[in-house]
């Protein structure tokens, strides 16, 4: 109850000590993705992340050691989110064309709904990838993305519906480029060409156009 009597002192437990550590870390990372995505590494404030998660800077530094450590962990968590989304779709059970269509559509939707991920990746490219280079997990986190595309593509080649001789990494990069640009440049592109890039009709048409570009690149007899 947190009060003192003549004979007894009762202390409240710190909320940080009683909350599940995994939940605390997940909440911190969620707030960090928003803060770093909005303000970048230089402009982000650990105080703001602490306030958003009802924790303390001390606890954040306990888990992540530094602001830069938190930034790297948030970037890796953001990549992990899309990798988990991809792996959860069970694309290996779909026909190759349907699987590639689904993968492209889901990537498009994920990027559209996670602008902070796009902004963090843009910022890390501005930093020439130097923080990601310090991470021990980033290549391991993203290796399944290529394996996923390779599995779809090789099944399509075996079934005679995809052109042989293409590079799965290049296919992945093409999907990423088209869906990434749709978010990274939507404000400038929409303003310059007077497009309502957030209207449901525009989003649906753009998604389908990107799907068709990818399919026409890999399909036989299109």
Helix/strand/pairing class, anyone?
mainly alpha
Q: How many extended strands? A: 0
Biggest pleated sheet: none
Mean pLDDT, to the nearest integer, reads: 90
Radius of gyration: 22 Å
| Rough outline | globular
The proportion of residues in beta strands is under 5%
Quaternary organisation: single chain
The sequence of SSEs as H and E is HHHHHHHHHHH
Number of helices in the DSSP assignment: 11
Compute the separation of the termini in Å: 72 Å
Give the fraction of residues assigned to helices.
over 70%
Report low-confidence residues grouped into runs of 5 or more.
1-17
Plain-language structure description:
With 222 residues, the chain is mostly helical. It contains eleven helices and no strands. Helix 2 crosses helix 7, helix 4 crosses helix 5 (67-87) and helix 9 (168-184) runs antiparallel to helix 11. It is globular, with a radius of gyration of 22 Å. The model is unreliable at 1-17 (pLDDT under 50).
């Amino acid at each position: 109850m947190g009060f003192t009597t003549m004979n007894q002192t009762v202390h409240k437990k710190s909320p940080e000590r009683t909350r599940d550590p995994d939940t605390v870390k997940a909440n911190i990372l969620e707030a960090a993705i928003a803060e770093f995505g909005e303000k970048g590494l230089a402009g982000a404030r650990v105080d703001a992340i602490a306030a958003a998660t009802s924790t303390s800077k001390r606890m954040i530094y306990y888990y992540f050691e530094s602001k830069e450590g938190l930034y790297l962990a948030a970037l890796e968590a953001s990549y992990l989110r899309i990798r988990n989304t991809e792996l959860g779709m069970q694309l290996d059970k779909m026909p190759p064309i349907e699987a590639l269509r689904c993968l492209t559509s889901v990537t498009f939707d994920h990027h559209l709904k996670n602008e902070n991920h796009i902004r963090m990746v843009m910022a890390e490219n501005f930093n020439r990838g130097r923080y990601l280079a310090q991470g021990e997990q980033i290549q391991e986190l993203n290796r399944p993305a290529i394996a996923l595309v390779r599995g779809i593509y090789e099944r399509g080649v075996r079934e005679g519906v995809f052109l042989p001789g293409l590079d799965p990494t290049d296919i992945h990069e093409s999907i990423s480029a088209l869906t990434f640009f749709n978010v990274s440049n939507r404000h400038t592109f929409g303003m310059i060409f007077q497009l309502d890039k957030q209207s449901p009709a525009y989003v649906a048409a753009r998604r389908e156009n990107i799907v068709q570009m990818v399919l026409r690149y890999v399909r036989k007899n299109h």
